[in-house]
Write a structure and sequence with these properties.
By secondary structure, this protein is mainly alpha-helical. The protein contains five helices and four strands.
């Protein structure tokens, strides 16, 4: 009978050691997964999750990476389409800070690359309507979707504005 208790105690002890080991590996893997998700949320699209723990979790990380690659490739493709448009396209947030410019808009505003423009107030381009009631964004807020500023060289251009909407149709 004492041998039975000893064997039972050994089995319980081994079970606990195995359970702690599995829990530790799963916890570490979930932390790696969370770190991956946090980096993606910050806009780091180069990060990948390379889990080596277990067949199922390794497969999950492979599938998530594959899905993420599809999203990043589509995002790059759409950005390339917008950059191929020869007309300026710029996007600002509600506080009038740039969040995107295509290649033509970067050229028109004198920026050589997008990170130089991001977050700057749109009046940094020093357009003739900037900081006036005729500002395109101010006009859009009043319901007017077109303005025609005069450029320093005397040419008149037409600027069309609209609100970007999310997939639920909300500005």
């Amino acid at each position: 009978l004492n041998v039975s208790y000893v064997l039972f105690a050994i089995l319980v002890g081994l079970s606990l050691v195995i359970a702690v080991g599995i829990t530790s590996k799963l916890s570490r893997t979930l932390k790696e997964g969370m770190a991956f998700a946090e980096e993606v949320a910050k806009g780091n699209f180069d990060v990948r999750w390379n889990s080596q723990v277990g067949r199922d979790i390794g497969r999950l990380s492979d599938e998530l990476n594959a899905a993420f690659d599809i999203v990043v490739n589509k995002m790059h493709w759409y950005e390339s389409v917008i950059n191929s448009v020869p007309y300026s396209i710029s996007v600002t947030d509600m506080d009038m800070h740039w969040t995107f410019m295509n290649a033509a808009a970067l050229k028109d505003t004198g920026f050589s690359e997008l990170p130089q423009a991001l977050g700057k107030h749109c009046s940094a381009k020093k357009g003739s309507l900037c900081n006036t009631p005729g500002c395109g964004i101010e006009c859009l807020r009043r319901g007017k979707t077109r303005v025609e500023p005069v450029l320093p060289d005397g040419r008149t251009i037409r600027i069309t504005m609209s609100y970007l909407k999310d997939r639920n149709g909300v500005n």
